[in-house]
Input
Amino acid sequence: MSFSPVVSSSRREFFRAAGRYGLLAALGLVAVVLEGRRRLVGQRCVNQGLCNGCAVFARCGLPQALSAKVSKAGAQYERRKS
Output
């Protein structure tokens, strides 16, 4: 079995590959952002807006749930402070 010798790449090939992989990463990031938005658009409240004790509260991304999470975290912070 014969292996070809390692060929060092030129500066032009390096920039071409960097641009290609950078563009691929940007496309992947756009896909992730769009998928996240699509999930939020499809969500509906299953507990009539009552977040306390809701089964899906931890993974809910609706505005009322996000507000409840922030206020809950602030209350826990205040308890730790005193």
